[in-house]
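Lecture 7 notes: from sequence to structure.

We start with a single chain of 200 residues. Read the sequence below before looking at the structure.
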Amino acid sequence: MTSRQQLIAELKKQGNCTLKTLKGSLGLSENALRHHLSQLEREGFLTISEQHTGVGRPAKTYALSNAAEGLFPKRYVELLGLILEEAHDKHLLNTLIQGVVATLVKQLEPNLQGLSAQERLMYLLEHLDYGEMLGQLEPTEAGWELRAYNCVYRDAGCKFEAICDLLPQVINQATGLEAERPFCQRDGKAACTFEISRTT
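Now the structure, written as tokens:
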């Protein structure tokens, strides 16, 4: 590991550490440690607090911030794959998807109160990371067409088609607008396309 990686690993294992503690456990110079700590703080990966030990100036302690969790490998994708596989094999996937849709809509509902159907749709797309989908929303005679060039559920959807129906179901239940998916990246299309009707 590089000295930066060693420092990050030590902070992960030890929690709040003083400069003296880090110097002793890593064998790095104080200048090198200060350099890496300053860089981690600028990147938002470090929190600094003061530790009062009695007489004299309090010692600074360093700990990783919540944002630093992204620096460590996670196995969420594998876990999700196993859960979906198990639900599919036991014919529970559609029930699981319906539960996820209901939960999402319930979480969104307080922010949708008093909004028109179109305002609900715009809020919904923004809340569901519309930008990450590389989406294009265009008006049509019947309502709108949403094209997502980066389907955030693509890999799961290619394996389990029910996943591809999650977004249209959320749109329908959260806005009252009819939504369907005529084209999909799982079929080799350039974008997942959703037709959203103004009428229910």
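The beta strands are 17-18, 46-51, 59-64, 135-139, 143-148, 179-183, 192-197. Keep this in mind for problem set 3.
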